[in-house]
């Protein structure tokens, strides 16, 4: 794991005598907390002092052990090489993508051991298996975030655009053949998701009549945005109607960012990005838990290259770094090596 400078060998005998021992607690029986405590005790045996390396190993062995228990994986000597272009602790979903890749790899390893396995079925994940990947990754996300929403692991698993509501089935929505671009803007300000979530929880506890309404308003904004995406699926990218719908979508982004500001999860750097985007006739909002990290700027399909470049240049001149991407990419995939 180059990004956290982690290169470690762990004897298989040590794994077998601890995590795979007959008396090791079953996650499905004891629940996350007791299971996590046992995984943590094992990782402490590996004497890894760096917090990022320690948490990476926690996630790895949590994912491995729950796959052994859930899928009957037979563990043999193995090597994992994991690389990412996502920064850590910036609200870009790095922990979720890490957890999804790990759990998908272990589940695929278990599928390869199945006597019913065939090449066609092993080349991709069906919807049921994707659900297992997402659930396993969500369990791993608890290590980093305490009580994660489930959104990040779902997006990383399923791809596309998802409609997510806790305890409800995932709804995947496509954008048809539309290419909605987005600029991911790195504030270069670090933050802790767990701390920001705890701060919002404290505000909700202190002022429930205010913040319950704010959270409900954010939900309504999301539902309006989903309806807009649905309407735009059949529109021509350069039509007048598309421009009208995109301007409404950008207005919703402004509203959402304002509501998040009310929740005290924004940051001066994020506010600056939003102002710069608005000055260029576009809309930006924070990602993840806020407090720094990333913002994104939505680029409608009809916007000119010159306009995007001018915005990019101004953001960079203000000390931010910018990466262009598209909305609605693919989820977790299997590739031959």
TrEMBL record:
Residues 248-309 form the GHMP kinase C-terminal domain. Pathway: Isoprenoid biosynthesis; isopentenyl diphosphate biosynthesis via mevalonate pathway; isopentenyl diphosphate from (R)-mevalonate: step 1/3. Keywords: ATP-binding, Cytoplasm, Kinase, Lipid biosynthesis, Lipid metabolism, Magnesium, Nucleotide-binding, Steroid biosynthesis, Steroid metabolism, Sterol biosynthesis, Sterol metabolism, Transferase. It comes from the Eukaryota. One of its GO terms (cellular component) is cytoplasm. Residues 67-159 form the GHMP kinase N-terminal domain. Its EC number is 2.7.1.36. This is Mevalonate kinase.
């Amino acid at each position: 794991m180059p990004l956290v400078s982690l290169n470690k060998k762990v004897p298989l005998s040590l794994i077998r005598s601890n995590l795979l021992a007959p008396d090791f607690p079953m996650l499905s029986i004891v629940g996350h907390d007791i299971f996590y405590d046992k995984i943590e005790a094992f990782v402490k045996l590996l004497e890894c002092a760096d917090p990022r390396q320690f948490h990476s190993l926690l996630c790895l062995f949590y994912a491995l052990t729950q796959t052994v228990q859930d899928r009957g994986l037979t563990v043999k000597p193995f090597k994992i090489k994991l690389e990412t272009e996502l920064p850590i602790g910036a609200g870009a979903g790095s922990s979720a993508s890490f957890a999804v890749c790990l759990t998908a790899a272990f589940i695929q390893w278990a599928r390869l051991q199945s006597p019913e396995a065939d090449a066609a079925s092993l080349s991709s994940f069906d919807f049921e298996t994707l659900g297992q990947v997402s659930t396993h990754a969500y369990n791993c996300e608890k290590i980093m975030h305490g009580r994660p929403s489930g959104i990040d692991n779902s997006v990383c698993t399923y791809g596309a655009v998802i409609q997510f509501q806790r305890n409800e089935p995932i709804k995947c929505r496509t954008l048809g053949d539309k290419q909605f671009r987005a600029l991911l803007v790195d504030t270069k300000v670090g933050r802790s998701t767990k701390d920001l979530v705890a701060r919002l929880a404290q505000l909700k506890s202190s002022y429930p009549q205010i913040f319950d309404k704010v959270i409900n308003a954010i939900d309504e904004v999301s539902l309006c945005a989903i309806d807009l995406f649905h309407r735009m699926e059949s529109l021509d990218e350069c039509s007048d109607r598309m421009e009208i719908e995109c301007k409404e979508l950008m207005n919703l982004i402004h509203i959402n960012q304002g509501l998040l500001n009310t929740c005290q999860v924004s940051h001066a750097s994020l506010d600056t990005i939003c102002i710069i985007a608005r000055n260029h006739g576009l809309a930006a909002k924070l990602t993840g838990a806020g407090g720094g990290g990333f913002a994104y700027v939505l680029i409608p399909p009809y916007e000119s290259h010159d306009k995007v470049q001018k915005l990019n240049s101004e953001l960079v001149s203000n000390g931010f770094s910018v990466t262009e991407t598209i909305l609605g990419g693919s989820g977790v995939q299997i590739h031959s090596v």
